[in-house]
Design goal:
The complex is a heterodimer. Chain A contains no helices and 12 strands. By secondary structure, chain A is mainly β. The chains are: A mainly beta, B mainly beta. The interface between A and B is medium-sized, with 18 and 21 residues.
Chain lengths: ~110, ~120
């Protein structure tokens, strides 16, 4: 079956630090991969996505590259801000329209 | 575009009562809607998938008689938690997608507290 594994949080960084949140997946076929962000008390917002191997999704300074050889989709940002503090979910979508989520990683950015 | 709303955003109810949560797609016709449940500091767990005009498909372990889902129109799905108990307290999130796109658009969530 499908599964997504994320690094456990919380991840605590100082403002302007470099961010990496690891995500690996197990799936049959060729899934699409997503990163969602959830701010406190809110629903999920799509942050970025990639639909095939070697694609790079990017948005708001965040980026992630679909690596089929390592089955990974790590999220990176060069310089985090306090406003980036949130929970980040990696997810995949395989045949059909079902999303499988990772456990989420809480990011806390301190001024 | 592709905005999904939920109502109410927060609800407190007494044990044994029922509560209805609405999920609406505001600017598109949602052929499929999804209901998720999220416990504190945990990931989203899919509860059920509903297609307009047909019965919902529930995930294993989700009681269909307790969590009633109705997708009566292309813009509205409702989740009714019947005879709620404190263990049903959770954050419920819906999402919607439309044919030919596949991407799910998420609502802001509803926090249910059962006292």
């Amino acid at each position: 079956g499908n599964s997504v594994t994320q690094m456990e949080g919380p991840v605590t960084l100082s403002e302007e630090a470099f961010l990496t949140i690891n995500c690996t997946y197990t799936a049959t076929g060729y899934p699409s991969l997503f990163w969602y962000v959830q701010y406190p008390g809110e629903g999920l917002q799509l942050l970025l996505k990639a639909t095939k191997a070697d694609d790079k999704g990017s948005n708001k300074g965040f980026e992630a590259t679909y690596r089929k050889e390592t089955t990974s989709f790590h999220l990176e940002k060069g310089s985090v801000q306090v406003s980036d503090s949130a929970v980040y979910f990696c997810a995949l979508k395989n045949a059909g329209n079902m999303l499988t989520f990772g456990g989420g990683t809480r990011l806390m950015v301190k001024p | 575009g592709a905005v999904v709303s939920q109502h109410p955003s927060r609800v407190i109810c007494k044990s044994g009562t029922s509560v209805k949560i609405e999920c609406r797609s505001l600017d598109f016709q949602a052929t499929t809607m999804f209901w998720y449940r999220q416990f504190p500091k945990q990931s989203l767990m899919l509860m059920a998938t509903s297609n307009e005009g047909s019965k919902a498909t529930y995930e294993q372990g989700v009681e269909k008689d307790k969590f009633l889902i109705n997708h009566a129109s292309l813009t509205l799905s409702t989740l009714t938690v019947t005879s709620a108990h404190p263990e049903d307290s959770s954050f419920y999130i819906c999402s919607a997608s439309y044919k030919g796109v596949g991407e799910q658009y998420f609502g802001p969530g509803t926090r249910l507290t059962v006292t």
